[in-house]
Amino acid sequence: MTDWASGVAVPAAQAVYLYTLDGETGRPVVKAFGDREAALKVRAASGGSITSFAALKARELSHRCGFCDRACYPEDAAMVTAGGLQTWGCCSHCALGVAARTGKDIEVRERDRLTGEEIVVKTANGAIASIEPATAVAWFGQRKNAEGAFVSAGCFHQGFFATPENLKKWVEAHPRATGRMISIAQALADKMKLTPEQIGKACKIGECAPR
Q1: Distance of alpha carbon 36 from its chain centroid, rounded?
Q2: Backbone φ and ψ of 190, nearest 5°
Q3: What's the domain count of the chain?
Q4: In this structure, are residues 78 and 92 in contact, taking their beta carbons and an 8 Å threshold?
């Protein structure tokens, strides 16, 4: 870790951490210090809690994606309800994958990546039951593999948008993003086609490409 006060590298397990929350997003803000006294000085000015590496690790890994098991922040993740139990999707497509992994009907609450508008998707028997707003679409982020074929770009390169127009604006603002627009129904169908072996290895680059 880089010591916040000195800029010098310090062993992560031996550092102390100042843990605060961003006032607008609610996301954690974590600063590492090699010296506890330095951390206390910064805390006196900015607030927060002093914590150990072990406690920080437990907190950082406490929320897991219900599809790929990747650690995620609830503030960034899609909320998923499956069989009455709440979990998370680290990205919009992993959220849909919870239906494939659990075999249960799910409800996904995700945000438009451009505007933040809430998008609610409900499934029944492995298919779409409802989408609000009905105009919502999915971005299928892709990249080329070693053979030159396009496959999934993996988590965090996927998204939902309330309208195709919102997706177009987002793509224009992110010219380096590669992929294509698909329906949310197609995104779900792709996940439902995955084999148990593929689901078990999700979401390595390319492993989410349906066979």
Answers
A1: 32
A2: -60, -40
A3: 2
A4: yes
Of the candidates 138, 164, 160, 140, the residue with the CA atom closest to the CA atom of residue 150? 140
Flag whether 211 is in a domain.
Answer: no
Tens of pLDDT, residue by residue over 137-154, are 999 999 888 888 888 878
User: Do 103 and 42 lie in a common domain?
Assistant: no
Angle between helices 92-102 and 184-192 (to 10 degrees): 40
85 strand-pairing partners: 82
Both 124 and 151 in one domain: the answer is: yes
Burial of residue 102 (CB within 10 Å: 0-12, 13-18, 19+) is: middle
Kindly report, residue by residue over 62-103, the tens digit of the pLDDT.
999 999 998 999 999 999 999 889 999 999 999 999 999 999
Same domain membership, residue 106 and residue 56: no
Regions in the chain scoring below 70 on pLDDT: 203-211
Q: Tell me, what's the pLDDT at 208?
A: 53
Alpha carbon distance 127, 86 (integer Å):
20
Shared-domain flag, residues 130 and 192: yes
Domain-embedded: residue 160: yes
| Domain membership flag for residue 174 | yes
Output the average pLDDT for the chain: 92
